[in-house]
Amino acid sequence: MSDKNNLSDKNDDSRIITHPGGKIQVLVEVKKPKTLVVASSADVPKLQVKGLEIDPEYIPIPITPTDKEKVNMSVDTEDIVCVCGKVEKNKIKELESQPNVLRVWKDTKVDFFEKKNDTEFVHVSAQPTAVCPIPPCDCQPGVPKGTIDDVADYLGVKSIWSKGHKGKDIVVGVVDGGITAEGRPIKAADTSNPSWSNKLVKNVIDGPDNDWGTTGVGWGWHGNMSATDVLGMAPEAKIYDIRISGDALSNALSGFQWAINRHRQDGTPHILTNSWGYFQKSWDPDYTTDPDHPFTRKVLEAINEGIIILFAAGNCGATCPDGRCDNDTGTGKSIWGANGHEQVITVAAASKEEKYIGYSSVGPAALHDKKPDITSISHFTGYFNSDSGTSAATPIAAGVVALLKQAEPNLTQDQTKSALMDTAKDIGPSGWDIYTGAGIIQAKDAYDKITTGVMPPIPKPDDGKICFIATAAYGSEMAQSVQFLREFRDDVVLKSRFKRGFENILGVYYSFSPPIAELMKRNKAFKYTLKYTVVWPFVALSKVTAFLIKSLLIK
């Protein structure tokens, strides 16, 4: 049986993207022959999806199949693309019934976890509506507790700067509502807005859209705040403006795909910071609670590619929740979708006075019980008079990660999370807790941990030896190509009749590969030369010959 979502009546219609005439916007997962190239919207008609009005500007997104989807396709000869289009609401079931359509998801609007301008702060009450779990709570987002420079002092960031690490050569993608950047032609919608402050962000160098760096008014220059907060911790880092146009989750998906494609070209961005999400489950019950949603799967693809991913926990803590949360506040009802996936770094908020911010969202998350992971700093003067929300806390943490990444270029998602959690300052119940995670990050302590050779452990998917060179090339043991090589080694090579000979060869490999991997870690040019001239061809050759080896060698 095909595992398809019948979503026609499940979502809150107020968040569904609707077009004139009543058609709604959807994301459609379509299986196709691998030989069929679908690289642009002009190619989408080749998929023969009946009843879907294709978005002519949306580039189809390749997506990794779920285990359930693999049952309904031939993984050797078929793959999946995700396309965007319009359909009449009462035609969704008909669309899903087509044999090449695997799933249909309604496209919904996301929102950001902060304020729109200096007078419209996070929509919280200064008077707590529930008991503060870690008293005294800070429920005053409009009152700054120092400046961004004070935050750098508190976290020990300036001590890292003194070591020569200010984020040089590190690129942080700000997935947000847009940025107005220095050297770019700012749009009239921004400059004519009564709240326009004429503040431009430095170090912004690219983005998916041709008009990157030209607008931020749609989210009240929230993207400017996020970028400013990153640079406050890592002043020599560069910024990509990955704008979520139209507030659509489908455009966030496109932004992540652009980041993955760019990373495959030149190894950037190194980090993606995300200060947005969903305030209520009802905004999109399927995305918020289903780990198989295409966007969440794309987030994991980005991590496997070697990009470090941070997400804001949200602003729906029970003590003084944002009004947009409605009844979805507090424990188990405030961290939704990819923001709470096990593999991302989920960020809660406190002030530099070490007061827990009472609206910071609380675990367990919809997708993982042990959330949030860490707490970062909010409520300080940065881009705005008071940068607030978990929106501000997350780019502060991303800026710290940029410093760590410069110091240790091969730093992975798992290592980053472990280093931050292992050195965090506990301000809540002893040990990890559902409010602050491991505690407030301590940048200098995390830096010392990764630079003194006391690296945090990396969770191992199995007990086999590491593919050192491939792991160094792709940045993570969990990268798809690294996992393929491991499976190829364990399930094919070492199960063949020539096992003993291969073991001898592998023994030689394990004797010389660690120093090569270490050199790749320290020398970017060497890393990418080896990745593209040796590792990629070897992976491709292994995939091409896997079937033959299984047929001829395995007993």
What's the short story on this structure?
With 555 residues, the chain is an alpha/beta fold. 34% of the residues lie in helices and 12% in strands. It has three domains: 13-107, no CATH class; 140-451, Rossmann fold (3-Layer(aba) Sandwich); 468-553.
Describe the structure.
By secondary structure, the protein is α/β, with parallel strands linked by helices. The chain has 3 domains: 95 residues, no CATH class; 312 residues, Rossmann fold (3-Layer(aba) Sandwich); 86 residues. It contains 16 helices and 14 strands. The strands form 3 sheets. A 7-stranded parallel beta sheet has the order 8-9-7-10-12-13-14, with helices on both faces. Strands 1, 2, 3, 4 and 5 form a 5-stranded antiparallel beta sheet that branches. Strands 6-11 form a two-stranded antiparallel sheet. Helix 6 runs parallel beside helix 10, helix 13 runs parallel beside helix 15 and helix 15 runs antiparallel to helix 16. The protein is globular and about 70 Å long. The N terminus is likely disordered.
Helix content: 25-40%
Per the principal axes of the C-alpha atoms, what is the gross shape? globular
Count, helices: 16
CATH superfamily of the largest domain: Peptidase S8/S53 domain
Strand order of the largest sheet: 8-9-7-10-12-13-14
Quaternary organisation: single chain
CATH secondary-structure class of the largest domain: Alpha Beta
- Look at the helices and sheets and give the structural class: alpha/beta
Q: Mean pLDDT score, rounded?
A: 88
CATH architecture of the largest domain: 3-Layer(aba) Sandwich
Number of separate domains:
3
